[in-house]
Amino acid sequence: MKLLQNSGVPIYQQIAEQMKADILVGKLKEGEYLPSIRGLAKELKISVITTMKAYEQLEAEGLVTAAQGKGFYVNAQDSEMLREQHLRKVETALMEAIHAAQIAGMAPGELEITLRTLLKMEEEA
Prior knowledge:
mainly alpha, single chain, two-stranded antiparallel ribbon
């Protein structure tokens, strides 16, 4: 799991988003237990409270359920609905990038090159 300290996105939200993505692509399957709150906090070198907040966000979104004494497990998902949610986020982020590029005076071709470069960097990471 990659956490970016200076991204402006809270750590708990980064954890929740990455787990949500793992659920969407089937990396985390229905009925599978998430790592323990303490274990994940120790692994990521973050606060237990931060980890708990991420898990509570996933629970509030209906993605996981807390089982007393066992931790959190993945609920059955409507993968099409989750995919649509992610597509909306992508569209919103791309529109923000387009507007920022226009303000910066970037040509559409420059924006495409930047996107391709970032995609390539992400694949290599």
